[in-house]
Structure formats: C-alpha cells, structure tokens
Design goal:
Helix content is 28%, strand content 27%. The chain has 11 helices and 16 strands. An 8-stranded mixed β-sheet has the order 3-6-7-12-11-10-9-8. Bound molecules: phenylalanine. The site of phenylalanine has 10 residues, from strand 11 and strand 12. The site of phenylalanine (PHE) has 10 residues, from strand 11 and strand 12. Keywords: Aminoacyl-tRNA synthetase, ATP-binding, Ligase, Mitochondrion, Nucleotide-binding, Protein biosynthesis, Transit peptide. Its main location: mitochondrion. It is found in: Mitochondrion matrix. It is an enzyme of class 6 (ligase).
C-alpha cells in the first residue's frame, strides 16, 4: 500500500524511494528561530547584518530546494557523500531540505543580486550530542562585482579594513597565502584579481570576527583575539578557506568560504562577474557568545530561557536547574548496511527533543558468525520538565520496537 504524499506547509510532495524526511524533522520547517524576537539566533543575525549595511538581507527563503540547487548548480560531483540518504533529508528524488544556505547562491546571482546576507534553517542527518542537532541555522554572505570599477572599490575597502585591523588587538595567522599549489587561484583570474578578492574576503571576515568576539574579552584583559585561516575545499570555490577563532584555549571553527568559481557564475548567467562567498554556522557562534551549553536550548519554549535575552546586548545565559537525566542502554546485532545516522534518526523520531545523546559504548564482532553487536547508551533529558522513569521506559520500548521493525536488527 503506497504511503500518502508528504505535506509540508500546505504543499504536497510525491514520495519515492528517496523520501526520508521524517515528521519530526518536517515539524521544524517554519519555526524560523532566526526571526524570533529576542532569541539569541535572531540577536546574532541582527549583529552580523549590522556589519553589512549595504548588503541585501534575506531571511525567508523556503528550506525546500531542488537537488539541483543544493548540489548540481554548485558543482558537487555525482558521488559526493553529502548527497547520500544517510547524510541528507529528501522529500523525493528531486526535492530536499537544503543542507546549506549555499543552495541559493546561483538563483540569487541569476537574479542580479551582487551583495547579500541570507539567514536560514538548514538540515543534516547527524549524530546526536550537545552541539549537534539535525536542524541548525546558517548565514550565507556573498559579494560579486564586475572588473574595473567593482574591483577598484574592493581595493579601496581593503585599504580601510587593513588599517582598522592593524590598530586592533587581534592576531591573525594565515598560512593559506603559501598554499597555492593545493588551493589554486582560478585560471580565469589574474594573480592581481585573485589577490584583491581573497584579501577582501579575509579582511571582511577578520573585521566581522573582531566585532563579534572582540567584546568578549574581559575588562583589563590584554590578550589579543586570535584568528586563524585554514585551507579548505568546496566544489564551487577556489581558493577555499575555513576560519577558526581561539576561544577558552580551543580553536572553534566558525565558517567556510572562498572565491566563487567562475563555473558557478557562468551557470548563474553572470560570466563577467567575480567575487567571494562565505557560510557561517549561527549556533556554533551563539553557543559561545551567549554561553549556551546545549544546542537544544535554542528550541526551548521555556520562558526561563527565552526571557533572558534581548536585542540590546549579548549577555551570558544563566543556567537554571536542569532536570535530571536518565539513560538506557540498548544492545543489538546489526543487520547488513546498518548506519549509525539511520539509528539516530529513529531515536530522534521516536523520542523527539527528549533525547540528549546517543553514544556507542561497546561493540564487537562474533568470531564465528561474523555478526556485529553494538551497544548504545541513550541519554534522555527534557529541557523543560522532569521525566518519569515510566515515561522513559515507554519511549525506550518504542525505540526498540521501531529499530527492530525498520532496521531489521536483533535485540540482544
Ligand atoms: N556551505 C558551506 C558549508 O556549509 C560553507 C561555504 C559557503 C563555503 C560559501 C564556501 C562558500 O560548509
């Protein structure tokens, strides 16, 4: 018996063998935390938007995009792992939940937009822990222009930004200037052009980081802010970079970026333009700036969370007493093709936001039968209330029933 088509926000999507977006995931569509007044993600969005006053600020593009938008238009090869059903959520073979805000670059370039900031929810199948959630928010920034006057303006801005950075308390480490063999400039660009664009990208993001993180340091603290640039690879940019910020002794990766490949601009019908793009993860940054210890808190409806923040300032989250956690172990023989992300998905779908973590705690292969046994520890905790043991047992039973049914595993 065929399943009914998927309904999302009043629209209907035919199902096929690709459909793997679950009701729990689809229920997040339209929540728009980045637009919720006084929500940390919205406060952060406004801060960054203020850093780019001339850019178009776009905040309401639908998360349902075509596979072409999300992957093909950006030059992802057909066998790229990001396309797999274990990594991404599909409505059907043609339509999916965007995995990144870059999915909109080509359509916006096509529409003639040259400078934009686009904030939106993105969806990825992933492990479950305090800093991973299958829905999160990204901000895409792009700046393309024409040769001549356009590039001259970038050069002038480079000069201004460099002066600001020179007089600021910031140390920028950038070994990527020497890695041209593995991270090449494009043959369509002269060395001079590539340098102006890369420098503009780096200066722009270094000043943004200074603005966001510079104020974090405590009064009288002479320690400079530390930023480092790392070589990266993205199918639609070259050279490509990642940016990390030193925070409490750890390097925190906050964004990916690069010089947009001419290929992507040709596909956008603007072959004469050139420029850069970046994509930053809002939760990552907000967790640090607002001292939020668990990514699920952003989804909390508890006023003890929501009432703590307001648009005028960035204030650290004051933890209120957390409700107790409860864990249950689950051991089973895996079936052929078992994938941890599929398991996490089932858990997430059954337990919703009540699951805090799923951790592999034991595993072995039976020497005779070659079967693999795994044991997972499932951590349950609500952000908003106390869970009773009965309730957790009931959820756990339902998890077991569903993994047996859907994944063909055998509970031990
Ligand atoms: N979309 C990339 C990601 O999600 C980030 C990125 C954006 C990289 C724009 C390059 C240019 O990791």
């Amino acid at each position: 018996q065929p399943s009914p088509p998927l309904q999302v926000q009043g629209k209907t999507y035919a199902r096929d063998t690709y459909s793997n977006a679950t009701p729990t995931i689809l229920s997040k569509v339209g929540k728009n935390l980045h637009l919720k007044p006084n929500h940390p993600l919205s406060i952060l969005r406004s801060r960054i938007e203020a850093h780019f006053p001339q850019f178009q600020h776009l905040n309401s593009l639908s998360p349902i995009v075509t596979v072409k938008q999300n992957f093909d238009d950006l030059g992802f090869p057909p066998d790229h792992p990001g396309r797999s059903l274990t990594d991404s959520y599909y409505l059907n073979k043609q339509e999916m939940l965007r995995t990144h805000t870059s999915a909109h670059e080509v359509e916006l370039f096509k529409a003639g937009v040259e400078q934009f900031l686009l904030t939106a929810d993105v969806y990825r199948r992933d492990e479950i822990d305090r800093s991973h959630y299958p829905v999160f928010h990204q901000m895409e920034g792009a700046n393309v222009t024409t040769r001549g006057e356009g590039l001259a303006r970038l050069e002038k801005e480079n000069e201004e930004m460099r002066q600001r950075l020179d007089s600021a308390n910031i140390i920028i480490t950038d070994p990527t200037r020497e890695t041209t063999a593995t991270n090449p400039i494009q043959e369509e660009h002269s060395e001079e052009e590539a340098r102006i664009i890369s420098d503009h990208l780096k200066n722009t993001l270094n000043t943004l980081v200074l603005r966001l993180f510079g104020g974090l340091r405590k009064e009288g603290d002479q320690e400079p802010l530390q930023v480092r640039w790392i070589e990266a690879t993205f199918p639609w940019t070259s050279p490509s970079y990642e940016v990390e910020v030193l925070y409490e002794g750890k390097w925190l990766e906050i964004l990916g970026c690069g010089v947009v490949k001419q290929d992507a601009l040709n596909r956008s019908d603007v072959p004469q333009k050139l420029g850069w793009a970046f994509g930053l993860g809002l939760e990552r940054i907000a967790m640090v700036l607002f001292s939020v210890p668990d990514i699920r808190l952003f989804w909390s409806e508890d006023t003890r969370f929501l009432s703590q923040f307001n648009e005028d300032s960035i204030t650290p989250f004051k933890p209120y007493s957390r409700h107790p956690e409860c864990y249950k172990d689950l051991a089973f023989w895996t079936a052929e093709g078992f994938h941890e992300n599929d398991f996490c998905e089932v858990v997430r779908d059954v337990a919703g936001d009540l699951v805090e973590g799923v951790q592999l705690i034991d595993e072995f292969v039976h020497p005779k039968t070659n079967r693999r046994s795994v044991c997972y520890r499932l951590n349950y905790r609500s952000m908003d209330r106390s869970l009773s043991n009965d309730e957790v047992n009931e959820i756990q039973a339902k998890v077991i029933e569903t993994v047996v049914e859907q994944m063909g595993v055998e509970v031990r």
